Amino acid sequence: MSHTVERLLTLSEVSEQTGIPEATLRYWRAIGSDGPDFRRVGRRLRVTESALKAWMDRRMNDPAA
Q1: Which residues pair with 41 in a beta bridge?
Q2: Quick one: average pLDDT of 23-45?
């Protein structure tokens, strides 16, 4: 049986992929805005690749975004 582990992206990697500054991503998380679904893993923020893709797809399909 094959078990695939999904890659966890860092805040920096999300910033590079989206072009959104790290400070903005942190701010959105702090105020509870509709940003990527970051989770704490130890002391670090991480987001799965699939969660980032889903968030980006929602933003691209939302005319108000």
Answers
A1: 44
A2: 91
